[in-house]
Amino acid sequence: MFPAARRAVARHASRVIGAAPSLASRAYARSRLLSTLAVLEQRDGQLSHGSLSAFTAAKKLGGTVHGFIAGNSVASAAQEAAKVEGVEKIISVDNLSYEKGLPENYAPLLIENIKKGGYTHVIAGHTAFGKSVLPRVAAMLDSQQISDITAIENEATFVRPIYAGNAIATVESSDTIKFITIRGTAFAAETPGSGSAAIEAGVDPKSEPISEWVSEDLAKSDRPDLATAGKVVSGGRGLKSKEEFDKVMLPLADALGAAVGASRAAVDSGYADNSLQVGQTGKVVAPQLYMAVGISGAIQHLAGMKDSKVIAAINKDADAPIFQVADVGLVGDLFEKVPELTEKVKGS
Amino acid sequence: MASKLRILVPVKRVIDYAVKPRVNKAMTAVETAGVKHSMNPFDELSVEESVRIREKKRFPGGVEDICAISAGPPKAADVLRTAMAMGADRAIHVELKDGEEMEPLTVAKMLKAAAEREKSNLVILGKQSIDDDAAQTGQMLAGLLGWPQATQASKVEFGENNSITVTKEVDGGVETVKAKLPMVVTTDLRLNEPRYASLPNIMKAKKKKLDKVGLGDFGLTNEPRLKVLKVTEPAPRQGGGKVEDVDGLVAKLKELGAL
To answer: How many folded domains does chain B comprise?
Structure first.
């Protein structure tokens, strides 16, 4: 077995043994039969590296790990995924009709491949794609999915935030096939290394499409991707207008090499694009640095960023709830403080 | 086939979004007794969208029926009354015992049976409930029915031959998909702005039909697949205090290794 995988398994086993020896030995006996299918994402033949988090979670479970990828011309993406260490096989289905991940035909495709592989666990990211496809598949196979998990205790027990992260539930699944979506920020994505998984063509049921992809409009940006960025600067209602948002926040983001986020208030007021929203109903981020500018810190917003390593806040209201979670807070007018900060960051 | 729309709108009674939930002493669940409850915010959008489809005559064949449905304790009837005050024609209350919860898979099975019985051709659900945050029920329902689905809708439009075009919020932007009725749609926050029920409409809603049924009437029993082992408070985060000026901010961030 590959060193990384062995380490992961050993770490997992020691933790379980520490908690309950009898359970651990049982889990170990079963882990030989345990096999996980990690559902990977791609776009235009490019592997989505964030989706390699599914491998991270799969390896924590122990047992064999396979990856699944489908779309138009996915050969090179499959080869890249095959380089992740500890992965035994990549199942690849090359067919234009799966390119957009439409759940109506992707679900039967996934089901056929799950049945063929006899998997005990199926993992996908809690992304727009994972959220759309996996529950459909789970229901069709009569399994109660476990969504947006942040930790794996053992092969059947998982930890997930509920109530916008205000409570943490530990749940044990009794389903034969466990369907899981994972919170990307809780499972650092594996990187392709020197692995050499076999690539195998999957089953293609070629089911008739009952829905049609029409178009998409994705926000284009040279900045890092919000969900995986190391630094995030986020603006709220305090920015007052789209012009001010762009004028104040974008230079700061560029100076820091950060992604730009926004509160729901800023998005609803049209200051920033919907796709930048951080919170319970938007993206969940956990960067090294999260800088909240003109954001009060409502519970729905905190749900999306309170696992950040360091939180900084700039707000003119000294009583804003954001200061209760911020590692460092500055009370002041953001229109004055942020440009000053931008200059100092540039200068340092 | 010129049909009329028969919309099923599942709604859930949850702890009000503005309330900070507390974990109970036994660490088995979130404390719900004596806590303000409301309709799940995403479900308000579903009701609003259904009513607007009728009011704006967006569907060529017209809207024949808007039926709200909820599974929950006796008090779930309150959210059904709210849905009717917003414009739903009638409601079905699948009564559960106080404290009894259903998992998305069971809810989806119940809704499948309800959609078939009520001859629904459009089911509009919230994208997630703000208590369990599972984001599963709509997709599970679509899978069980074999209908197309459009999740996280920010715009819903109708065309010729029962076609329906939905703009969805996805990571990084929006995506537009098209399918034919019958269909399942889940709502995102940008879809619309729900109305407040007016007092006269609240009074009228009291006269609308609210059927009470049991899960058994749909041939189902409530058998959870997931056992909740424990529920805990998240590790509290301590604020690190404030600095005087931008220099202080930069210095602190460097000290914390964030710059």
So the answer is: 1
